[in-house]
């Protein structure tokens, strides 16, 4: 289990993840961009991240590659940060809070908890991912849970797939995933002909809403003890 910074740089959040300069996610209306104080020297070389079995330092951070910083909109930058300091094979899970610049309603909030997964090794395929996600969904929602993978697009995967689960007669999208794009491996110095991997991400709040029939995502951050004490 790996944790990372909530304030990210443009390189790790976009460039290294193969997200092009003209992608809508970079637009000011979709991302919380930050202004850097004039007298602040942003140091990430000594940022300490916690893993399950050890602690490690990002010593060769490319954070200074750009001067633009933002509140992370996804936990995927930790794929890059972890791979910069580790060699395959490995499997990691990255839980963390993310931020989206969007209007709030019953199913959308400006902040929520995301869980990222990354597995890299030799001969890794979507079959490995399908096995893992099946075990996870059936453990969480019951052995009779039906799910399917549908083609999708994410700049950092090739191919990309969405995970849909059948719940009370409806198909619901519960996760985005796919095989790690070769350009992402190249950004961290991996040989894409030698290593393969899959990545996935899902909103923890959304899964809780489905499982416990919670009608409004804003309840998680309302501070209402009547809601919180149910769990």
From TrEMBL:
Give the source's domain of life in one word: Bacteria
Give the matching InterPro entries.
aa-tRNA-synth_II, aa-tRNA-synth_II/BPL/LPL, Phe-tRNA-synth_IIc_asu, Phenylalanyl-tRNA_Synthase
An example Gene Ontology CC term for this record: cytoplasm
Q: Which UniProt keywords apply?
A: Aminoacyl-tRNA synthetase, ATP-binding, Cytoplasm, Ligase, Magnesium, Metal-binding, Nucleotide-binding, Protein biosynthesis
What's its catalytic activity? tRNA(Phe) + L-phenylalanine + ATP = L-phenylalanyl-tRNA(Phe) + AMP + diphosphate + H(+)
Domain Aminoacyl-transfer RNA synthetases class-II family profile: from-to ranges: 1-222
Keyword ATP-binding among record annotations: yes
Q: Which GO terms describe its molecular function?
A: ATP binding; metal ion binding; phenylalanine-tRNA ligase activity; tRNA binding
GO:BP terms for this protein?
A: phenylalanyl-tRNA aminoacylation
Q: What is this protein called?
A: phenylalanine--tRNA ligase
